[in-house]
Amino acid sequence: MLSRIRAAIGAAGLWAELDTDWLVLDAELLPWSAKAGELLRGQYAPVAAAATTALDAAAGLLAAAAARGVDGTAELLAGVVDRRGLAGRFADAYRRYCWPVESAADLRLAPFQVLAGAGRVHALRPHAWHLDVLGRLCAADGDFFRATSTVPVTLADPASEAAATDWWRELTAAGGEGMVVKPAEVVHRGPRGIAQPGIKCRGPEYLRIIYGPEYSVPANLARLRSRNVGRKRALALREFALGIEALERFVAAEPLYRVHECVFGVLALESEPVDPRL
After folding, report:
1. CA distance 8 to 15
2. What is the pLDDT of residues 252-276, one digit of tens each?
3. Per residue in 227-246, pLDDT tens?
4. What CA–CA distance (Å, rounded) separates 242 from 264?
5. If you write DSSP's letter for every residue of 44-83 in order, what string do you get?
6. What pTM does this model have?
7. Strands, E assignment, the chain
8. 158-213 pLDDT, tens digit each
9. Which residues in 203-228 are b (16+ Cβ under 10 Å) and which e?
10. Residues in a beta bridge with 26
């Protein structure tokens, strides 16, 4: 797999263009089942199996009771049938990101950013630059690399915002995970300070994997919407700053303990308690 990545970087002319013999990429290895098999087997699949088994049994018993004319069973049965449908959608959601992997030929890589190379940190370059470079990389080996679709948005233009929203809806309706909203300049200072470098906007079905099969029930949605995300935003900005500092130190060939200081700082922030409703 690494040989294939190296060959594609060469075919795209990036070794020479970036004057480097190594690159750090922000990317995602696909599928889930190749890197998170234990999570799927130990967490998601058991939840789906337990929910469908229990709710199928409950629906059968309630249907039998309704057939005997027991009062109040029709409403209970309707609720159980709804919950069974949500459990099935939960299983469908994570299965979209799984496929059999017999060898490296079955793996795919979705690159998002060129973080660094010899002598320079590239992470803070404008996103248009990253899209251009990674577009050429993906074109060099379209079978292995997964190109990321993008749409530019002008926040002062309601039509532009509406077009992006429609694009997101079409993407997620077709089974896509969602999108990440990023400022054109990686570091953007607005009236409230530095903007988030990236905000994930998941699709409604993907959110079942994160929040559970029944997150979309109105009462659960109300609880989720009342959460306080201020602390999480602050943690994300600190982790972003530490990540950039780690890259700067690594590129400058500082001792590894200096790089590890930043890495352990990120790990410490990841362990900070946040709103449990997130």
Report:
1. 10
2. 999 999 999 999 999 999 888 876 5
3. 888 888 899 999 999 999 99
4. 9
5. IHHHHHHHHHHHHHHHHHHHHHHHTT-TTHHHHHHHHHHH
6. 0.83
7. 23-30, 108-117, 120-121, 178-181, 189-190, 193-194, 199-202
8. 999 999 999 999 999 988 899 999 999 999 998 888 899 999 999 999 999 889 99
9. bebbbbbebbbebbeeeeeeeeeeee
10. 113
How many CB atoms are located within 10 Å of the residue 130 CB? 22
d(CA 103, CA 100): 9
Distances (CA, A) of 145 to 92, 132, 138, 200: 24, 14, 5, 21
Q: How many other β-carbons are positioned within 10 Å of the β-carbon of residue 170?
A: 10
Tell me the C-alpha distance between 49 and 56, whole Å: 11
Reading the block at residue 184, the tokens are: 């054109």
Reported residue count of the chain is 278
Closest CA relative to residue 97, chosen from 209, 20, 237, 19: 209
Q: What is the largest CA-CA distance in the chain?
A: 79
Query: Torsions phi, psi of 147, nearest 5?
Result: -70, 145
The encoded tokens of residue 13 equal 């002319």
Q: Kindly calculate the radius of gyration of the chain based on its CA atoms and give it in whole angstroms.
A: 23
Domain residues of the chain, as ranges? 35-95
Between CA 232 and CA 278 the distance in angstroms is 9
Contact by Cβ (8 Å): 198, 180: yes
List 120's β-bridge partners, or say none: 117
